[in-house]
Amino acid sequence: MRYSRTDLLQLKDYHLVIDENISFTEKIAKQFSRIRKINEMNVTADGTYDPVSEQLLIHLEVKGSVIVGCDITGVDVIVPIDTAADEIFTFDKSEEDINILKAAGEYIELLPTVMQLILIDIPIKVVKSGMIDYPKGDGWEVITEETYQLLKEKRVDPRLAKLKEYKPQDE
After folding, report:
1. What's this model's pTM, rounded to 2 decimal places?
2. Which of 117, 110, 55 lies closest to 85, judged by CA?
């Protein structure tokens, strides 16, 4: 998924079509602390190269799954990835628009953009679905947000506990 200016100029009508399955090594997954494994991803793309402006306008779609740890128990959870983005790449080094991605040397690299799309599609908090028993130990336990709110409402501030004993006297 690396294209030089020459590769793009040789395309029929300057039209780029990609449909590839990409396998990621464990080394790539270990660069990101949340990801335990990146399963095979299907990357499809449809793009057009403009030789005058030296820009590649491309629509990328990434589908597959990654394995991350559950934020409560730490067990493996498969997270589906299904994302898309429209990107503009350029060979023009003087381009100042921050929304246009510059070529790495003489090549346009699509793999870093694919990796960014995968990372963006992973939720901030991942909890294994169907989880009924939360972990607990000696003096601690994980509770649901609803249980926490109920306990919070019932709890009395210890600084005000003495006021519960106060009984108004008739005058």
Report:
1. 0.74
2. 117
Reference 16, options 29, 2, 32; nearest CA is 2
Contacts of residue 103, defined as CB under 8 A and 6 or more positions apart, other chains included, come to 89, 90, 91, 109
Q: Are 62 and 38 in contact (CB under 8 A)?
A: no
10-residue mean pLDDT series, the chain (171 residues): 89 92 88 90 95 93 94 88 95 85 89 93 86 77 84 78 73 57
Contact 110, 1 (CB under 8 A): yes
CA angle at residue 131 from 127 to 137, to 5 degrees?
A: 90
Query: Nearest 5°: CA angle at 33, between 30 and 39?
Result: 55
**Domain positions in the chain:** 2-121, 136-165
Residue with token string 């629509």: 59
The count of C-alpha atoms lying within 13 angstroms of the C-alpha of 138, restricted to the half-sphere facing its C-beta, is 0
